[in-house]
Amino acid sequence: MNRCNLLFFGLIQRGEERRKTEEERRKTEEERRKTERVIRQVNKQLGELGNKFGSFTEGMAFPSMEKILRNHFKMDVVTLRAKSQQNGASIEIDVMAYDNGSRNEIYLVEVKSHLTRESIDQMLKTIEQFPKFFGAHRDRTIYGVISAVDIPDNMRAEVLNKGLYLARIHDGTFELLTPRGFKPEAFGPAAKQNRKLKKRTSGKK
Questions:
Q1: Any idea where the domains of the chain sit in the sequence?
Q2: Fewer CB in 10 Å around end: N or C, the chain?
Q3: CATH fold label, 58-204
Q4: CA dist., res. 128 & res. 124, Å (int)
Q5: Which CA distances in Å does 52 have to 45, 55, 109?
Q6: pLDDT tens for each residue of 45-73
Q7: CA-CA distance, 106 to 100, in Å (whole number)?
Q8: What is the pLDDT at residue 148?
Q9: Which one, of 83, 79, 73, lies nearest residue 105 by Cα?
Q10: What is the value of pTM for the model shown?
């Protein structure tokens, strides 16, 4: 085979290799796109499942939860999923309960399927933002309640150390898990003002 033929066959071989390489690259890209589509679909389905389960959890425990809020905490008004918007931002309270008497207290309940550290942070953030979004209740003393189906042992102490009430949802019932002698943290502008007044009063004695 002469030199020209060798060059010709060499060009053909390199062209075939490039074609195969391009074909493999195209298949790899196509598989990557398919994988991304599957991941997006799975994430969407998991999100929808989480929302449905959260709504179901709130719904099945609400009658028992309402009973405790009315009888144990002496609340007069109990509202499921209270929402408020302000300047493009929004906030949603799973359960909100308050009294119409002189105590001027309000309880915010966060319902979770699984209790995590993020759940605690979210509850504290909700309490902090509450007076801004619900101005009509700004002067009330705020108490937080975290309720969950699954409560890891290491999370229980963290909730109580933050001064939050803890409750478990089990078989459609709402059960408080706070120990005897537990002193909840009073949150909100009203609670801060009361603490300042007490300090001033004690300082004068």
A1: 58-204
A2: C
A3: Trna Endonuclease; Chain: A, domain 1 (3.40.1350)
A4: 6
A5: 10, 5, 18
A6: 444 444 444 554 555 667 888 888 999 99
A7: 10
A8: 87
A9: 73
A10: 0.68
